[in-house]
Amino acid sequence: MVGRTTAVLRLRLALAAVFLALLALYYSISELLPNLSERGDVLWVDFALPLLIFAPVYLALELRNRRSAVVGAILAALLATALFLSGETLAASIPKLAAAALVGFIFLRFCEKLWLLVAIALLAPVTDTISVWRGPTNRILTTAPQVFDAFSVASPVPGERAITLSWDAPRDSQIAGYLIYRRRDGGGERQLTEKPFCAPKDECGRSLDFTNFGQPAGARAVYRLLIVDARGGTGRATFSVPPVGHGKARSSASPGPLAPTNLSAETAPASAGLGLSDIIFFALFLAGAVRFRLRPAATWLALVASIGVTGILADYENFFGLQGFPAIPGLSLAFLLVNGDLIWRRLLNREEIDDDFESRPVPLPRR
User: Fold this and answer.
1) How far are the Cα atoms of 23, 79, 250, 341 from residue 93, in angstroms, in the given order?
2) SS3 state at 348
3) Closest Cα partner for 102 from 126, 80, 118?
4) Are strands 221-229 and 234-241 parallel, antiparallel or unpaired?
5) Are 314 and 271 in contact (CB under 8 A)?
């Protein structure tokens, strides 16, 4: 039995490594892939890509009650931190995914009873929604989105990139606002800001940035920054972004007292983000379905589908003013709906589950 369990574990971990390699390959070439229609982007990012992202989580379920899960979570977190600090933010998503999933497995050890897991599934959506609506998540997304980038797994959109312009405001000037224009190969100039932003009433600081999301890769873009002074003067700067590639682009500013300084234009694949806490709860509910002998394969499919529905809500309904939507309510609902009858029967009859699930291999989903 021990030998068979070890062989199954090795096979499943090998398959998980294959899926992670495919995910890494997609991250590296996403910008070079064809640019899909809006509907195609939604279907790919919200439904197809989560199948690839969460397949390793299902395959790694054999680690859910092993001490190696703790070691793996620590090593994955250290690797993710090193990649993120070195500027490889997209590559860091893979070890972040592994670390968060293993943390979810580890957390299940504290849920010794089924009713406790059910209580978490009922209470977590409330706290997550409050956090996104008025709590810490809301403050992070509105004031420090880079923090969310650090604690999320990216889902790149094929054939698209985001271009971020950064600059420092001129010293000793009374800025009335900034206007930004863009010109792509084969097209005219387009104003991206309907009205000057970062006017005095906006209380902007000295360092500013502007991100243009969803730009098709493969086309050179030139951005023009116009600085409007309250006394009638103007300052200008241009940013030239190459058709492909990541990192900084060329930039220059016209001389004069209103010239901005520290110009920078950086490109990166356009992507949506899934918080690490969402992945932790995904792994927690999935491992719970195994531990309490519910429906693991159906639970996995339902959890992945809930991620897709949450993505659609984030794309088309701006309920919280953040272009985002809490994922934990959908995950909790999916877990309860798929396993509701078994949960009710176990709780009603007070069935005790023998915690020997380490020696019980999880079957692969049948097609």
Assistant:
1) 10, 10, 28, 36
2) helix
3) 80
4) antiparallel
5) no
Using CA atoms, how far apart are residues 222 and 48, in angstroms rounded to an integer?
Answer: 33
Give the model confidence (pLDDT) of 98-151 as tens digits.
999 999 999 998 888 999 999 999 999 999 888 877 777 777 766 666 777 888
Overall pTM > 0.90: no
Cβ pair 303, 285 in contact under 8 A: yes
Instruction: Kindly state the percentage of the chain with pLDDT values over 70.
Output: 86
Can you tell me the distance from the alpha carbon of 135 to that of 333, in angstroms, rounded to the nearest whole number?
A: 22
Q: Kindly report the CA angle at 148 between 48 and 164, in degrees rounded to 5?
A: 85
**Which domains are seen in the chain, by residue range?**
2-155+272-359 (no CATH), 160-269 (2.60.40)
| In the block, residue with structure tokens 């989560």 | 50
Q: Tell which wins on pLDDT, 354 or 346.
A: 346
Please state, in angstroms and rounded to a whole number, the distance separating the CA atoms of residues 25 and 17.
12
The backbone torsions φ and ψ at residue 349, rounded to the nearest 5 degrees and listed phi first, read -90, 0
pLDDT of residue 301: 97
